[in-house]
Structure formats: C-alpha cells, structure tokens
C-alpha cells in the first residue's frame, strides 16, 4: 500500500512537470507571434502566424519583413536564451553552487576580451566579417579549458573550479580593460556596445550556426542528466552509484562552454539568463535535471525573447540592448531570492 502511494505520488509529480513544460512551450510560441509584430511595419499576430506557415516564398511584403528581418532576431533570441539557461543549469548542477553560471566563471569575460582584441587591435584567428565572432568563440573555449586545467592541479572539485573561474574572470576583465585603455574612443565605444549584448546582428547564417551547436550539445547534456542528479548528493555518493564524477564534470563544463560560446559570439555578453532561468525553473518543477534542463531551455528562451520585446517597445523607436534589459529584470529577482526565508527551491 505504501509503495503504491509512493508510485502514485511520483507519477503525479512527473505529470505536473510535463504539463509545466507544455505550458512553457505554449507561452514561447505565443511570444514569438507577439515579438514578430513589433516594428515600424504594422502586422497582427494572426497575420504573423499565417505568414510563417505560408513560408518565405510568397513574395508579399509581410513575408519579406517577417522572414528576412524579424524571424532571425526572434530565433536567435530563443537559441541564446535556451543555451545560456541550459549552461547555467548544468554549471549549477555539476558544481552544486546556485551562483555558478557562464558569467560568474569567467567565460563571458573571455568572450569580451576576444571581441575587444578583434575590434581594437584587429587581431584574430580568421579574417573578414566573422573576426569578432570567431575571437569571442575561441577565447570562450580557452577560458573553459583554463578553468578545468587550473582546477585539475588541485583536484576537480566544485570549490577548485569556482576559484579557478573567478581567477580567470578577473584575468580577462583586466586584459579587456587594458585594451580599452589603449584603444581609440571609437573602438572603445564599439567594444562597450558589443558588451551590452544585442540581437540586432542576427541573420539566418548566424542562426544556423548557433542552432547546429545547440542541437549537437543539448542531447549530450540530457544524456548525462541522471549523472548530474547524482552529483547533488556529493562526490562520494555519486561515485558509489557508479558515476564517473570527473568525467561528468568535464563533459558538463565543456558542453556548457560550447553552448555559451555558440551564441554570445554573435550576440555579445548577455547576463543573468544563466542565473535567473535555472532558479525560476527549479522553483516550478524541482531539481530533477531530466526536466530541469529542458525546462530551463524554455524558460531562458521566454525570458530573453520577452526582455528583447520590452527593449524594443519601452523607448521606441530607440531599441535598448537586450543585455541591459536582462539586467533590469534579473536584479529584482535576485533581491527577491535574497529576501526569501525559504530555500526549498534549491
């Protein structure tokens, strides 16, 4: 009798989590239609969906506006929010730290340095229009490798990885500040604008690249979701359950870094999504990473697309960078978490 009640409660929780994921998907689909109506060309939500379902080849003015200008921005916002949310959830899971994210571990600082290097000195690994993006992508992965390498010296533990991440963050922040000091005012302005974070540079080509990276990395992370769950009980317990702890941390850190690099190299640094989205999702559906990770992907996409939509309307026709809007939305939420007495969401 007791076992049947436990099983019934477990099934009920699973159903509740699935329903939450479905509702988040519905919210995201609705938000896509609303976001596509924003701009100088007037179009209704119904017309947006009709245009999307009709495809890009209809030749109408509405199709050109939606498919060539608005959908790339919207899809990049979805991919960026999902990638940063998943990266934050994975890092918090493998490090057992609610403040872990791609930005608190120095990965975003490395991307900013790579972009600054391209903008101010014109130095990079490729030539042409992708110089800034390639530099940001490369230095993001370099920072992740440095964090892992420094932590390995003292043993791969959550504490050593966090300390290594903080050191890397300050290293690349100081290097970026040095480049800004020696750069011209125009170059420094370009660096600062890049660091604000914006979806305005989105194209179908950048969306495709980001989507390929996300679709390659996301299933790999989901495959290790059970192992990340085991890490929550501690390294010794996870090892006794057959989890290769260091291997899982390496895969998790690499996957989170790749997701982050794949989007912020095109958008610039966008903060708080990797911190806020996992916490909100965890409060809604719990800490089971089998549901938390896809839920955080949806939540991150909803938050970022919603923040970009607000940024496009609050001071229209001026468009506020989405990185500024996520900070405005993220700070009150963290004050709310700070003032809460209950901690059962973590």
UniProtKB/TrEMBL annotation:
Database matches in InterPro entries: ABC_BtuC-like, ABC_transptr_permease_BtuC
Signal peptide: none
Keyword Phosphoprotein included in the entry's annotation: no
Protein name (database record): Cobalamin import system permease protein BtuC
Transmembrane stretches, start-end: 21-43, 74-91, 103-124, 130-150, 162-183, 203-225, 258-279, 291-307, 319-339
Task of the protein: Required for corrinoid utilization. Probably part of the ABC transporter complex BtuCDF involved in cobalamin (vitamin B12) import. Probably involved in the translocation of the substrate across the membrane.
Keywords associated with the record: Cell membrane, Membrane, Transmembrane, Transmembrane helix, Transport
Annotated GO CC locations: plasma membrane
Subunit structure: The complex is composed of two ATP-binding proteins (BtuD), two transmembrane proteins (BtuC) and a solute-binding protein (BtuF).
Main location: membrane
Pfam family, any one: FecCD
Localisation: Cell membrane
Its membrane topology: Multi-pass membrane protein
Record-linked CDD domains: TM_ABC_iron-siderophores_like (cd06550)
């Amino acid at each position: 009798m007791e076992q049947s009640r436990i099983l019934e409660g477990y099934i009920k929780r699973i159903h509740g989590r699935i329903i939450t994921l479905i509702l988040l998907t519905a919210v995201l689909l609705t938000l896509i239609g609303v976001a596509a109506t924003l701009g100088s060309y007037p179009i209704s939500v119904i017309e947006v969906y009709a245009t999307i379902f009709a495809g890009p080849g209809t030749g109408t003015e509405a199709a050109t506006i939606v498919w060539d200008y608005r959908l790339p921005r919207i899809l990049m916002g979805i991919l960026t929010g999902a990638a940063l949310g998943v990266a934050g959830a994975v890092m918090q899971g493998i490090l057992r730290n609610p403040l872990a994210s791609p930005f608190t571990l120095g990965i975003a600082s490395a991307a900013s340095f790579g972009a600054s290097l391209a903008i101010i000195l014109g130095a990079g690994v490729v030539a042409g229009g992708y110089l800034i993006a390639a530099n940001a992508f490369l230095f993001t992965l370099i920072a992740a490798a440095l964090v892992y390498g420094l932590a390995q010296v003292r043993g791969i533990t959550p504490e050593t990885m966090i300390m290594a991440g903080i050191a890397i963050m300050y290293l690349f922040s100081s290097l970026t500040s040095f480049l800004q000091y020696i750069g011209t005012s125009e170059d420094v302005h370009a660096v600062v604008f890049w660091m604000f974070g914006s979806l305005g540079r989105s194209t179908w080509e950048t969306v495709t690249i980001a989507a390929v990276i996300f679709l390659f990395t996301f299933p790999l992370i989901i495959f290790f979701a059970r192992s990340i769950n085991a890490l929550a009980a501690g390294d010794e317990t996870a090892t006794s359950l057959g989890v290769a702890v260091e291997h899982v941390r390496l895969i998790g850190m690499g996957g989170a870094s790749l997701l982050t690099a794949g989007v912020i190299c095109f958008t610039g640094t966008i903060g708080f999504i990797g911190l806020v989205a996992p916490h909100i999702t965890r409060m809604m559906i719990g800490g089971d990473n089998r549901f938390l990770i896809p839920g955080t992907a949806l939540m991150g996409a909803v938050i970022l697309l919603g923040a970009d939509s607000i940024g496009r309307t609050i001071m229209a026709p001026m468009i506020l960078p989405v990185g500024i809007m996520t900070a405005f939305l993220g700070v009150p939420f963290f004050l709310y978490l700070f003032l809460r007495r209950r901690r059962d969401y973590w």
